[in-house]
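agent> Task received from the user: take the single chain below, predict its 3D structure, and emit structure tokens. No templates, no multimer pairing.
agent> Plan: (1) validate residues, (2) run structure prediction, (3) serialize to tokens, (4) report one or two observations.
agent> Step 1 OK, no nonstandard residues flagged.
tool_call: predict_structure(input=
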Amino acid sequence: MKTYQQNQLTMYGAVLRFLAEDGAALAAIKRIGAGRVALAAVVTRLQTAAAAQDQNTTEITQDRRQVKAEAAGKAEALRLLVVALTPDAALRGELKQPLSKTLAGKDAELLRYLRRIDEAVGTLAATDLTDAGYDPKVRTALQADIKTLTDTQGEARQVITGASTATDTLETLLEEAKAVLDEQLDPLVLAQRLKHPELVAQYEAVRRLVKTAARRTPQYRGVAHYNQPVLVFDRRTAGLTSLTLGNRSGKGIALRYYTAAEPTARPAEGQGLLVKHKTDVHLSDYGPLGDAEAPYLLVLLEQVDGEGRWVVR
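)
tool_result: status=success, residues=313
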């Protein structure tokens, strides 16, 4: 699963947990509850598809590597016997390549060579083989190795094909989950803003897609409008002990970051940290933002004109 897909799946899971726990009052509303059930069904299918996509051929490849090495050792001993005993010059030329060189090539070519050596042994007279110290168990073991390599080659192909199909399915399911949010849950939940302002603010926070870079650091982004507190995240679930507060707004627009006990609270006079446009402020803890025990991090745009673009990581 790609990073952006995992980010989406994580967000869908966060929405479901919120509606099952802190947002249960919202989920109790019939149509919102139905939307939650619909989203849960899609997420279950997403998780199944993700598990199928995450299969890999590592274990199969490791097993095949060992079998190939053992098969090559047996085949090389038989190849030398055939080259020494056969009166067929063309066959000797066909089998002149040592297995050490063929082993590093493509699997299909190696299998063809192993099968050809096995067939070539069958062309030799039994008495000649006996006189040369031939052990039939070596050929039997080589035939077993050839079968194992053939079978596992199919298994690896099935895993790759299955993962490719799962990748296509993932994109479809992610779009389906997005449609449930956009068309069912979002409008119904946001319509409860006057009745349940705090729950709606929390819903908007968990609904926000959290981006993670390759280094897996969560990154929260959003837009703030004049005099409307925006809940960035709940510190108890965000997992950030130190953080960077950023402002990507236009010139002259500052953003105030602060902590609060409620998800819709406004800052006290002079509380929090004012971050100017195109600036990042690094904090080792939440102390400068207000009450150290307050669970919510919020951001507020205090200028009338403009739009505040915030980022926290």
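agent> Step 4: summary for the user.
The first strand starts at residue 211 and ends at 212.
agent> Done.
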